[in-house]
Amino acid sequence: MRIIAGRHRGRLLSAPPGEDVRPTGERAREALFNILAHGKFAAGGPAYGGARVLDAFAGTGAFGLEALSRGAAEAVFIENSRAALPILRQNIAALGETTRSRPRLSRSALRQAARGNCADGTGGSGMA
After folding, report:
1. pTM (2 decimals)?
2. Would you tell me which CATH number, out of the four given (3.90.226.10, 3.40.50.300, 3.40.1010.20, 3.40.50.150), belongs to the domain 26-114?
3. Which residue of 26, 62, 74, 116 sits 20 to 30 Å from the alpha carbon of 104, by its own alpha carbon?
């Protein structure tokens, strides 16, 4: 699995062994980002340009890392599997995106949301 476009184009992502994590496929990501870049959401340029994105059920982080590669300002990654979280963090570090990424285990993200905080601790303002 690889990043499709942007500054990290062609970079490979690691995935944990087994079938527990099923990353968003390259074709699905490409189709989604094409819609966001060229559809009615893109009147002022790609909808993800400079945006804060949420990659829920992140797994490998393919969706959020693709968004960062294409110009998103920040990504919050929420993952349920403790086994997948180290791989997610490894992928973030391998692409040099640690300062613009916030990986979270879903249980802690849900606790923060219950207290009125967004998963990234900002209170939910500006999340795309």
Report:
1. 0.78
2. 3.40.50.150
3. 26
